[in-house]
Design goal:
This protein is an alpha+beta fold. The chain folds into three domains: 2-180, Heat Shock Protein 90; 182-271 and 282-291, no CATH class; 395-521, no CATH class. The chain has helices at 2-15, 43-57, 105-115, 168-176, 235-242, 253-265, 272-282, 284-287, 294-302, 333-352, 370-389, 395-411, 413-422, 433-441, 461-473, 482-497, 499-508, 516-521, 532-544; strands at residues 23-34, 66-70, 73-78, 122-125, 128-134, 145-153, 159-164, 189-196, 199-204, 209-213, 216-221, 226-230, 320-322, 356-358, 426-430, 449-453. A hairpin with a 2-residue loop joins β2 and β3 (73-78). α6 crosses α9 (294-302). It is elongated and about 120 Å long.
Length: 545
């Protein structure tokens, strides 16, 4: 009797649909799926999965799919017919271009809908219909199966899915409709901003943005009206999706991962400034009050060092500054440690004066930061020190250098010719050992400047030649690099094999060696007693005065 009563409820729900004029029960089946199944999809995922079945069946004419939400009644209609018995069985006949290959989606969606208060979801295709309900508890268990009531009805054009609900989130999710899927007529899409590799970026016609992956909307981009489409599958993301029945894969860390992939591969290098400008312009509702966003952070992380963007920088007035953070600043460790108290004190004053503090990664977009200001001052001072307290070789020193290069060329023509014919090496003379050491430390890879202490020219042939060879080898790499040690080892071997050449040049060195008395009569640098750091401090104090 109870069974008959439930069937009557099922039939009544079916007959309540305006399009159903007649309905005859054909058969009833208890499913192996129960309401105890551990899936609990959100309203958004439920809607997406139901609509996905319509998308796959009507992929040649997606625009024919209509979603109607009127008061508490929700209907979805597509022109293509569908075998409703497929909804009962686990397994899928979907093709490669379809989404959802395991046939679990519909069952999981039904269980999740029922858990959210939907009682009789209905599917109709042609003259067939199925109403899904919850059956009685199975003997000696608390398990309640899904029951499928199959009906023969008056013929319908296409396929219909219908249910009633007073859940506002459920109605909102279905109202979003076919915007859940990527296709060119998607009403979310505004003008294309740019495309690169397997990514495309559009403006969103709504206040929020979205991420599409493998043809499906996977994530929201709150307060940034931008639509990112990822047209390529990534193994790490696919693995997570396959293992996640609740389909929350794009929450949290995986969403951040996808943003990172986009930042690395989706933005063309040749026009990155313009692309960043467009994204940040659309993201103004996020940052204008000092806020940040995972998408912007991912882009900032991908910019190594402090990027010199020109167009992007114009978005931010002088009322903004980026918080100085160790990751997003140009200071080395020692400078950061020494300047940190002053940095925080200055930032506090900025905020007291009404400036808006942005997250540290905004420094990568050209937003000023205290640490960047300090670094810029230090660079300026270093250049002044280098200009004022280093010099070009005088005539005698240059003659000595030329003599040594001739000796190196005779010792190893393959090595020496690099500096006679290929590399344009410049030489700077320094008096202070402290300044000399620090100038060498800040030298970059492939730097073509060789710094020499003026006292070297009064030293032995072996001492000045060994120093010069060491410095010239740095063209191939820094101390400890394999390329540097390999070329240095080669020169040691050549020097041993060609020691007669070295002996010849050692004897001739007396004609080029500059005596200490000669050096005292040459207009040289002023003595430098302090380290470069001390000099910087001194210069900054003078500037402040």
């Amino acid at each position: 009797m109870a069974k008959n009563k439930e069937i009557l409820k099922s039939k009544r729900a079916l007959m309540d649909l305006p399009s159903v004029k007649s309905a005859k029960l054909i058969e009833t089946h208890n499913s192996s799926v129960t309401t105890a199944w551990g899936v609990n999809w959100s309203e958004d995922y439920i809607a997406r999965d139901i609509l996905q079945n319509f998308r796959d069946a009507n992929k040649d004419d997606i625009n024919s799919i209509k979603v109607n939400v009127k008061k508490d009644d929700v209907t979805v209609h597509g022109e293509a017919l569908f075998n409703l018995r497929r909804l009962f069985y686990v397994g899928s006949e979907k093709g490669e271009g379809d989404i959802g290959q395991y046939g679990e989606g519909f069952k999981a969606a039904m269980v999740s809908m029922i858990k959210k208060g939907v009682t009789h979801p209905i599917s109709i295709s042609g003259d067939k219909a199925v109403v899904i309900r919850v059956g009685d508890e199975i003997d000696d268990t608390s398990l309640c199966p899904l029951v499928y009531d199959f009906y023969k009805v008056n013929k319908h054009e296409g396929t219909l899915f219908s249910f009633s609900t007073n859940n506002p989130e459920m109605k909102k999710a279905f109202t979003f409709g076919m915007k859940h899927f990527w296709y060119k007529e998607n009403s979310l899409l505004g003008k294309e901003i740019f495309s690169h590799n397997d990514f495309s970026v559009h403006q969103s016609k709504e206040e929020n943005g979205y991420v599409f992956y493998n043809g499906i909307k996977r994530a929201d981009i709150k307060k940034i009206p931008i639509v990112i489409n990822v047209g390529k599958k990534y193994a790490a993301i696919e693995k997570k999706i396959d293992s996640d029945r609740d389909r929350n894969s794009f929450d949290g860390k995986l969403q951040d991962r996808l943003f990172g992939i986009f930042a690395q591969s989706g933005i063309p290098y040749y026009s990155k400034d313009a692309c960043y400008y467009e994204i940040l312009k659309l993201a103004k509702p996020v940052w204008e009050d000092g806020g940040g966003h995972p998408l912007l952070q991912a882009i900032g992380k991908n910019l190594y060092g402090i990027d010199k963007l020109v167009k992007t920088k114009t978005l931010f007035s002088d009322k903004y500054f980026a918080e100085s953070q160790s990751r997003y600043n140009p200071l080395n460790y020692q400078e950061w440690y020494e300047e940190y108290p002053q940095i925080r004190q200055t930032e506090k004053k900025y905020e007291e004066n009404g400036k808006i503090k942005l997250p540290g990664y905004f420094a990568c977009f050209g937003v000023p930061s205290v640490s960047l200001e300090i670094h810029s001052k230090n660079v300026k001072i270093e250049k002044e020190i280098e200009q004022n307290e280093t010099r070009s070789p005088n005539r005698k020193e240059q003659q000595a250098i030329d003599f040594l290069i001739d000796g190196i060329n005779e010792l190893s023509p393959s090595f020496g010719s690099l500096y006679k014919n290929i590399y344009s090496i410049s030489y700077k003379i320094v008096k202070s050992d402290d300044l000399l050491g620090q100038l060498k430390e800040k030298r970059g890879y492939w730097d073509k400047v060789v710094y020499l202490n003026e006292n070297l020219f009064s030293k032995s042939f072996g001492e000045i030649l060994s120093v010069l060879l060491h410095e010239l080898c740095h063209v191939f790499g820094g101390d400890g690099r394999r390329s540097f040690s390999d070329i240095l080892t080669y020169l040691i071997r050549v020097s041993i094999d060609e020691r007669n050449t070295l002996d010849k040049y050692a004897l001739l060195w007396k004609d080029y060696k500059i005596s200490e008395s000669d050096q005292s009569t040459i207009a040289l640098l002023k003595p430098i007693q302090n380290t470069l750091a001390d000099k910087i401090t001194e210069y900054r104090k003078n500037l402040e005065r």
